[in-house]
Amino acid sequence: MLGLMQDRPLLISNLLEFAERHHGDGQIVSRRVEGDIHRYTWADCARRARQVANAVEAEGLLFSDRVATLAWNGYRHLELYYGVSGSGRVLHTINPRLHPDQIAWIANHAEDQVLCFDLSFLPLVQAVHARCPTVKKWVALCDADRLPADSGIPGLVSYESWIGGQPDTYDWPSFDENSASSMCYTSGTTGNPKAALYSHRSTILHAYAACLPDVMCLSARDSVLPVVPMFHVNAWGIPYSAALVGAKLVFPGPALDGKSVYELIEAEGVTFAAGVPTVWQMLLGHMQAQGLKFGKLNRTVIGGSACPPAMINAFREQYGVDVLHAWGMTEMSPLGTLCTLKNKHLSLPAQEQLALRMKQGRAIFGVDMKIVGDDGQELPWDGKTYGDLLVKGPWIVKEYFKGEGGNPLQAGNWFPTGDVATIDADGFMQITDRSKDVIKSGGEWISSIDIENIAVAHPAVAMAACIGVFHPKWDERPIVVVAKKAGAEVTREELLKFYEGKTAKWQIPDDVVFVEAIPLGATGKILKTRIRELLKDYRLPGL
Ligand code: ADP
């Protein structure tokens, strides 16, 4: 016997209709590419998203056709999120930090029909447009009077004229909630990029989950700043979750430096912000240098790569901001785990609480996880045994767009994350490493994350990356590549001494290599492949 409840599909357009009806005067504030601040409301956003849907219809796009963006976080991008997906087309957010060849490859692979871009990316579009034959319309996200005269891009229109003539009435269509809504290519550190193709259903379920108290704890009282880009896994789903609860949204546009982000947080009463560690590094650096404090910011989600304990501490102790360490990936929409304590942990001494907060956290309902050994057998949740981390759930990919790379799932529909982790008896997962970054020294494993965390706790170190290098006896030994803070000094010997007592002796790196800057990838993560390339002729001292 089936239940007798209404079978209403979960659709992205429902979120916007809800936000308009119940939080119509809720604010959306954006720093624009032009540099000024733009303000409007959820009702305005809904009205313009309907114009977007009409513009997409007018282009003759069919159900599931792709509309691409190369854009910063801002209100026009938000309108595309809702207008494109809501009308049944697929929003393809492209990461503008990728190499132009990769961007052209991705646009062709996705068969994008319309591509909307911020003017900051005009040179990029000029470089790739001739190689994107499927794109029949190029739209610059600007006012008509800002459209560059001689762009060299045939038929280029401004966004405002593209949607301007369209009616602001539109009946959002109803369709199967499993229909594709948006897509995001993984950074592709190995091989060609592969696309996760999200559905309306997966997006809504993820949006619900993200708002839970032990996840982002979002509400109508929050002012939310996603520093994490809308071109990277839908800004961790915040544009959807904010509509679901009617939160104020604050978009940083292209200005991601510490000063600009700090000013926006203060001016807009931001209570909650989300981003990768490298962005927060810049913010903290600015605040420390200027002796600044936060007004209302009380919590921040940090993920994408391991958040150093020194950062968790600085936020908590100097600024009274709770750091919620999160883990996920493009293939998981992206949220998998988030670190919040259980009731029984609240009475633990500060040091023990910090040890827990450093972990990537507990699974969100909807995400099942387990760790397995080389033989595929499940390993115990004892907080010590490490193994390959597998996940499954309704917002995790079952295969990639166009079947790229074959079936990624293992027996029982488990998706292998490529991460190595421990899980403790309370279900707190901790990433030891990415399986390809773990250092194998004499049959023992050394976590590159642990080695990096110690280095960045040194006051003179701005950023650190640990890689394994060849050793004839031990196979691999760790070295740490370090970028110093401006004006700060530390020698190789001082830094190696700093490791003493903080980790087992045999895990202390064999050498320190100082560099001007650590290379970062398209999503702000340390690019270890590039570091390995740069150091390909490096030999350990004494070998
Ligand atoms: P890509 O794989 O394309 O670089 P993703 O954003 O999908 O981009 O990256 C997912 C990976 O990032 C995870 O598999 C994991 O290795 C790493 N990661 C994400 N969050 C954390 C975290 N909090 N701590 C450590 N690693 C993390």
UniProtKB/TrEMBL annotation:
Gene3D superfamilies: 3.30.300.30, N-terminal domain of ligase-like. One of its GO terms (molecular function) is ligase activity. It comes from the Bacteria. PROSITE patterns: AMP_BINDING (PS00455). InterPro entries: AMP-bd_C (IPR025110), AMP-bd_C_sf (IPR045851), AMP-binding_CS (IPR020845), AMP-dep_synth/lig_dom (IPR000873), ANL_N_sf (IPR042099). The keyword Lipid metabolism applies. CDD domains: ttLC_FACS_AlkK_like. Residues 451-525 form the AMP-binding enzyme C-terminal domain. GO terms for biological process: fatty acid metabolic process. Residues 19-401 form the AMP-dependent synthetase/ligase domain. Keywords: Fatty acid metabolism, Ligase, Lipid metabolism. Belongs to the ATP-dependent AMP-binding enzyme family. This is Long-chain fatty acid--CoA ligase. The lineage of its organism: Bacteria, Pseudomonadati, Pseudomonadota, Betaproteobacteria, Burkholderiales.
